[in-house]
Amino acid sequence: MTLHHFHLRANWPGGRNGTGTIQAGNLQTEISVPPEMDGPGIGTNPDEMLLGAASTCYIITLAAILERSHIEKASLTMESEAFVDVTNGVFTYKKIIHRPSLVLTDEATDKDLEKARKLVDKSEASCMISRAIKGNVEVEVEPDISIAPR
Fold this sequence. Notes:
Number of strands: 7
Oligomer: single chain
Order of helices and strands: EEEHEEHHEE
CATH superfamily of the largest domain: K homology (KH) domain
Radius of gyration: 18 Å
Helix content: 25-40%
């Protein structure tokens, strides 16, 4: 078994509506409560960071699975959206939707297109962050997959 270790240092000198900082490897930013939750909205926040972790894990996993499957892409972009429910003052992260836009090279076949559709779903199930939040946060994938025009 190989165990990877990641470390984050946080500093939060104030109260709820204060600001702080985090440092973890190449990630260094200010943090605060987002304006949607009546905070100052300085830097990033846990909601954006969870969405960022899920999104980056998914798109990197998809790119790796496509590469291993010898599916050539012309482009891969994505937008993701998170939904946080507020009931009786309790905030609950409910759902993340990934909307990858995958364009295969103009040499791709219909068979490649069908395989890519399957790999889009496999990537969500294979993503470490998706597996970590499974059962707590619903993750959906709404792909747009096409072949580049010749």
